[in-house]
Known about the structure:
Layout: E1 5-6, H1 27-40, E2 45-47, E3 57-61, H2 75-79, E4 82-94, E5 98-104, E6 107-116, E7 119-125, E8 131-136, H3 139-151, H4 162-176, E9 186-187
Amino acid sequence: MILPIYAYGEPVLRKKSREIDKSYPELPLLIENMFETMYKAHGIGLAAPQVGLSIRLFVIDAVPLSEDEEYADIKEELKEFKKVFINPKIIEREGEPWKFNEGCLSIPDIREDIKRPKTITIEYYDENWNKKTEIYGDVRARIIQHEYDHIEGILFTDLLSPLKKKLLKGKLADISKGKTDVEYKMKFPSY
């Protein structure tokens, strides 16, 4: 089932999410719906707050990036990078921060260069509740950090300079008022 993606301005996007356990109702169905929603919106990552749930869960599928020449050196890794992250915790970030142009399904039509550390170590549970600890040091680390920020109540626009934020203020206000044209289902704040 395609879920509505919550737009900039929705309060759930600003809440720090809570952990869940194995008894979370219909978790496999939620995960399936999140992947379906992400694919419909042509995204490569989607966090639970973006579908209105303040829980520590996000899904990623970087397969579309495997066709991009920019990532030719990790093409095979990207083809296999479809993951579910339950109760994730980034336990280390290191390396020289590097810029990368990011966008977000909750903030359509805005893309900006964001600096993030190059390498991360993350602990999480997969969809079968197997505990994992993994290290990533390429675009996969970037995607994980972006989605992880969502469960912390942080949006990529929060990481911009004060000047950039000021320049985007009008566009962000328009998004929160539903003045945006997207090809996927969105839920806008009701003021």
